[in-house]
Specification:
It is a single chain. This protein is mainly β. Helix content is 10%, strand content 35%. It is built from 3 helices and 20 strands. Strands 5-6-10-9-8 form a 5-stranded mixed sheet. The two termini are 54 Å apart.
Length: 315
């Protein structure tokens, strides 16, 4: 690899520099080409993306991301201690990392990071800690002031699921729950009016549900809850193909989903000559239409409902 540019210049330099393979001096300057690759993939700094010459993208995922909600996972109470409770999920397929705290991390609903713990004795846990144990068991310490469960109260499996779905339990007067009628409220999510309960939890005002345990997520798919990341024991490698679309002969109906969805009829054409002819015909039609249009304003061209080109003035 050699670096080429103007030499023997003193002072400010306004020149063209480039890297070229080998030692031969290039005959002309070739500017760099910017390439932007958009992937609908969640990646971490441990993952790898390789763009191949054939236009495919190879993705090597080394980290698994799991949203710890109350819909996809089974939760249970493990034990209680002063000010917090230990909860566990038993159906999250995680490696046994109970001795390596650097291979997993977890955040709670407010984005704060939990402490990754390697202690063998689960009962020595504390609040805001996470632990990956054998047999796909994930343990999390939850403060009573986050959940709304009092010191002597043991939550049911459904109530734990509700907590991970964004709900807070409390009593009728807004105090932490010990006994009597249960109330549930949406944990404040920067939506609506915030209300702070007696024990310090922030909820969305006027969202109380009495008696029955909420089954769904408090704010649907945007509900903020706990999230877990852990290293995969072996990478997940797969490929994506960019810039290609297989069509059948004739008219194909294609929909592109994303920001500003686009739908169009795409015609399969046998040869490049047919493509050039169609482009040439369209260009000539546009030029003729533009020439015949007497307007001082900017215009757009579009097809009407009959498939004919028309001119639309831009106000």
């Amino acid at each position: 690899m050699a670096f080429h540019g103007n030499s023997g210049i003193v002072g400010d330099v306004d020149s063209q520099f480039m890297l070229a393979k080998g030692t031969a001096v290039p005959e002309e300057f070739i500017p760099a080409e910017r390439t932007v690759l958009y992937l609908n993939e969640e990646l971490t700094d441990k993952d790898k993306v390789t763009l191949k010459n054939d236009g495919t993208v190879s993705i090597e995922k080394n980290v698994k991301h799991v949203v710890l909600d109350g819909v996809d996972f089974d939760w249970a109470w493990h034990y209680s201690s002063q000010g917090f409770k230990i909860l566990k999920a038993t159906n999250i397929s995680t490696p046994n990392y109970h001795t390596d705290i650097y291979k997993f991390s977890c955040t709670k609903f407010d984005g704060s990071k939990l402490i990754s713990n390697r202690i063998e004795n689960i009962n020595s846990y504390s609040e805001d800690e996470v632990y990956l144990y054998v047999n796909n068991q994930t343990y999390i310490g939850v403060a009573n002031t986050d959940s709304g469960w009092g010191e002597s109260y043991t939550p049911t499996a459904d109530e734990i699921k509700a907590y991970f779905n964004g709900w807070v339990m409390n009593e009728a007067d807004g105090s932490i729950y010990e006994s009597g009628t249960k109330r549930w409220a949406k944990r404040y999510h920067e939506i609506g009016t915030k209300q702070t309960l007696v024990f310090g939890a922030d909820i969305e005002n006027d969202t109380m549900v009495t008696d029955s345990v909420p089954k769904g997520k408090a704010y649907g798919d945007i509900t903020k809850t706990y999230e877990l990341w852990y290293d995969l024991e072996s990478p997940d490698i797969y490929e994506k193909y960019l810039g290609t679309l297989s069509l059948s002969k004739g008219i194909n109906y294609v929909t592109v989903l994303g920001e500003g969805d686009f739908t169009a009829n795409v015609e399969y054409i046998d040869s490049i000559e047919d493509v050039i002819e169609q482009i040439s015909n369209l260009t000539n039609e546009l030029l003729k239409l533009a020439k015949d249009t007497k307007s001082d304003k900017a215009v757009n061209f579009q097809y009407d409902e009959n498939g004919n080109l028309e001119v639309i003035e831009i106000e």
